[in-house]
Structure of MFS transporter:
Amino acid sequence: MVWLFATATGLIVANLYYAQTLIGPISRATGLDPGAAGLIVTLTQIGYCLGLLFIVPLGDLLENRRLIFIALLTTALALLAASLTSSAALFLLAAFCIGLGSVAAQIVVPFAAHLSRPETRGQTVGKVMSGLLMGIMLARPVASLVADALSWHAIFVISAVGTTALAFLLRARLPQRQPDSGLHYFALLGSMWHLLKTTPILRRRAAYQACMFGAFSLFWTSVSLELTGPRFQLSQTGVAIFALVGVAGAIASPIAGRRADHGKSRSTTAVALTLGALAFALPLLIHSSRLVDLGVLVLTSIVLDMGVSANLVTGQRAIFALPADIRSRLNGLYMALFFMGGALGSSLGGWMFAAHGWSGVLWAGLAFPVTALCVFATEPRA
């Protein structure tokens, strides 16, 4: 079941990121202004944030398997619409709906935590989140390779078919889970504000990950523009290979989960945030030949992905240690808050690249983990 959960979350969340390395061809095909190209990713993330706030909490109210099934079919329809349109406005609307339906992944993750034993919950969440992060990281090279072989439309068609198949597979394999919260929907939503006010660990962990995910989204939204530009002149296949190497960063997830289970969350967080800052410092400090600079960018992608994945799993382990009857709401709040950071990062990345070039992107990216480290410095020791 852990492997099923991990694979499912990876396939679902990949839908949010197929467009990230295809911003150039999608913008040209739909007539979207280069300065607004970041909206392709930003609107997907905004849809995801709203889904986390208004759909994921239903995991504490409605039967989970049915909720996942409906959300996945919605995502498949939106993917199909994105593949068929040549209008910028319609594509952006479809991107928003893709994000909205892809929150099914964050109904699956608490489901996995609910089925796991308390003493191994961090490891279980780490394995599932490894699948999720692999989905995020593999989405970029897969999308680039498919676009090179066929067209950018093809990846959305393929994903629509795959998401539909996954919906029926999960409906057949997942056990039923009917929560017993005793709340109506609007009371459930109202309780989320109360949970945010009364759960300091949620606010702190969300702040760390919002900064880290903002840096992550900014980097991956902009790096394809830099790699295909005059400095490196890579093809979409070259961008795919670059993104594929970044997948190595996912190895940090299960390691972070085990350390969190052993009570080492604080030191793991410190290392994760430091890796985020180091990732952007490297290309700012090292300037050499084209080949060396490309190698530094590869190292940056791996180090950044390691920091983001380790911090994410450590945060979710802390959230899932709280009572099971509020787990979906806490997870929805946690993910929504840090995806807001991601939406800020992706929109800022496109604008910074257009206005200030790659160096502007790197300085903006560095500001995110440095801010997280400043917040972390105020954390009281247990």
Notes: Residues 33 and 194 are 41 Å apart (CA to CA).
